[in-house]
Amino acid sequence: LVVPAMVYQISQLIDSVFAKLPELLTTVTQALTPLESRLQAAQINVRAVDIVTGVISNIPKPEPGAVIGKISEMTMSTMAWVLYAISIFVVSFYFLLEGHSIKDAVIKLFPQRYHNALQLMASDVDDNLQAFFRGQVVLAILAGLVMLGVYVLFGVQYALLLSAFLAVWEVVPVIGPPIGFAPAIISVAIHGITFPANRIVQIIVLTLVFNVLQQLKDNVLAPRYIGNVIGLHPILIFVAIMIGARVDGMLGIIFSLPMACVVSVFPRHLPLHVTQTAPLAEPYSSGEPRET
Description:
This protein is mostly helical.
């Protein structure tokens, strides 16, 4: 209700301003008439109306339709992102508050003879996801420690703070490391490092070292370590990442490994085992035999 009314009023404002330009031209010309007379008396042939007309004619007139389109596009995108943010917070809150009851409610939708098997499957999915996030935290701490050594070696100011910031963002896949490294570039641009070169070269050198270490972590260490943690071969992890990139770009890459953790549980539990007892089984823990 509000945005269309504002857009319509902006269009009216643009039209009314340019409709008033001839009247404004006449007023300004009349005000400059005494100045024109003095200039002609000094044998300076300058007409005020020509000056004002030239200035006004050079003012670009915006197209109301284009202005409205840009405003509408910006408004709708802003509203969409606000709604997305609110939705994420609301859904996350209820998942954290009632996650277990949601899981039990979904399991109860299936026939009673499958409840035990589904409960075991859900427990394994939970264990895999927890193992994945623990692995991400371990890799993030390791990356922070390595970069702390690099920052200290190059004499980067605020090395401890910058490495801690990087370690926090390393938990977020793909987009986290560049965000975590950005403050280090700012620090080098302001204070410099011990590397004998100008600031631009120093930034390039530090960025190259960071990228080399990130490539080693992402392509050598992380697939093997995360694969051992969640029980997937490194090749399958690369395949999951490529599928995620194909399906939904950057967002697909971020969620590819958690989804691979979930999908990897299914072959161990399908087909579902039928039980004669109605109660749900206790969550599975390693070292205890499963009951079916």
